[in-house]
Structure formats: structure tokens, C-alpha cells
């Protein structure tokens, strides 16, 4: 029988204070070590519960298990994308993208400024907790903007995810209180465009 594997919390690809002033050390520590870690912990608890039930032959509420798994898995995956699609300003993050991703944005949105305006509007209009997403539709070869509610609602399974912005309150409240728009505005200074370009399927 193969060894059973579990999920592990991805370490941040930079120091906790590396994204300041867009995000403080206190904010990143809380977000990564408490909130992201909580989704990983939830995933592993579910796997242990499933292993135990199957070993003992007991029944579980599989509807509830599947729903909870989807929530925690989405939280883990989106946070992994979120951490890697940011980088310290000292490493060249932010600004207008060049290369293939810059060309794709200009071709489909008309300009980077138009794209930035639309993406920011998507982020600021998320109701409650969720994410702003730049995806890529493989059926039409188009970049598409959409929202994900919580971590797992409105996900398009055919849409590759290029760029995400977490707009749950825990992503910004320590630094920005309830000013989500200011958080979104400052986040553009830490976008890691080379990483976003790596995710392009074309």
C-alpha cells in the first residue's frame, strides 16, 4: 500500500517584511501563519477523518465532507497562487508588465490602464469574502476577469488562473482597516508579472 500523503503549508517565497509598505510584516504573518495555515490544517483533518472512517467502516456525511474539502482546498490553492504572484518592489515587482503578458493585456483590454481599472473594479466589488481573478479561457484564447466567492464558489473549471487578489478582510484589515480600495491600489506595486506570464498557456 502506498504511503498516505498530506498537505503542507507553502512557505512564503520572500521575507515577511518584504512587501512593505503595501503589506506589513504583521499582516503577512497573520495572513500566512494563521489563515492560510488554517486551510491546510482543515484539509489534513478531513483526510484523517476519511482514513479513520474507511478503516473502521463507519459512515460520514459525505455531502458535508465534500463541501468542506472544496472550501479548504480552494483556500490553500488560491493562497499559493497569491503568494507567488507577488514579489518585493526591490525585485522589480509592480509597474506595467512587458513581455508576452503585457502584449496579451494590451491586445485584449486595449491598454494596461484599462485592464488595471477593470481588475480593480472586480476586486472592490466582491461581496463579502472572496477573490478577484485574471483567468485565461482556453476555448477562446482570451484573458477573462471574474470573482471567486469564498474560495470555491463561481470557480470555472476550464479557466486557467493567471493572477489572484485576496480581498477577504483578513488580507488587509490590519493595515487598511475597512479601506479595501486603498489596499487594492497599493497591491499593484507588488504584482510579480514574470510569474503571471509563466502561467499563460500560450
Q: Could you explain how this protein is built, in words?
A:
It is a single chain. The chain has 202 residues and is mainly alpha-helical. It has a single domain, classed as minor pseudopilin epsh fold (3-Layer(bab) Sandwich). The protein has seven helices and three strands, in the order ααααβββααα. It has helices at 25-56, 62-84, 99-109, 112-124, 173-176, 180-187, 193-198; strands spanning 130-137, 142-149, 159-166. It has a three-stranded antiparallel beta sheet. A hairpin with a 4-residue loop joins strand 1 (130-137) and strand 2 (142-149). Helix 1 runs antiparallel to helix 2. The longest helix is centred in the N-terminal third of the chain and has 32 residues, at 25-56. The relative contact order is 0.16. The mean pLDDT is 93.
Find the count of extended strands (DSSP E, 2+ residues). Answer: 3
The proportion of residues in beta strands is: 5-15%
Low-confidence stretches: none
**Terminal residue distance:** 39 Å
The number of domains: 1
- Rounded mean pLDDT score: 93
Amino acid at each position: 500500500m502506498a504511503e498516505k500523503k498530506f498537505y503542507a503549508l507553502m512557505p512564503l517565497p520572500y521575507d515577511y517584511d518584504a512587501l512593505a509598505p503595501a503589506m506589513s510584516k504583521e499582516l503577512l504573518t497573520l495572513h500566512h501563519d494563521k489563515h492560510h495555515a488554517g486551510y491546510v490544517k482543515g484539509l489534513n483533518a478531513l483526510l484523517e477523518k476519511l482514513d479513520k472512517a474507511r478503516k473502521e467502516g463507519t459512515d460520514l456525511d459525505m455531502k458535508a465532507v465534500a463541501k468542506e474539502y472544496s472550501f479548504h482546498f480552494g483556500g490553500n490553492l488560491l493562497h499559493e497562487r497569491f503568494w507567488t504572484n507577488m514579489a518585493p518592489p526591490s525585485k522589480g515587482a509592480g509597474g506595467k508588465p512587458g513581455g508576452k503578458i503585457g502584449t496579451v493585456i494590451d491586445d485584449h483590454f486595449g491598454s494596461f490602464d484599462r485592464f488595471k481599472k477593470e481588475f480593480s473594479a472586480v476586486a472592490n466589488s466582491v461581496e463579502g469574502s472572496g477573490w478577484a481573478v485574471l483567468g485565461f479561457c482556453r476555448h477562446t484564447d482570451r484573458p477573462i476577469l471574474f470573482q471567486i466567492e469564498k474560495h470555491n464558489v463561481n470557480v470555472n473549471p476550464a479557466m486557467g488562473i493567471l493572477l489572484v487578489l485576496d480581498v477577504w478582510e483578513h488580507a488587509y484589515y490590519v493595515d487598511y482597516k475597512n479601506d479595501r480600495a486603498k489596499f487594492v491600489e497599493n497591491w499593484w506595486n507588488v504584482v510579480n508579472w514574470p510569474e503571471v506570464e509563466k502561467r499563460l498557456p500560450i
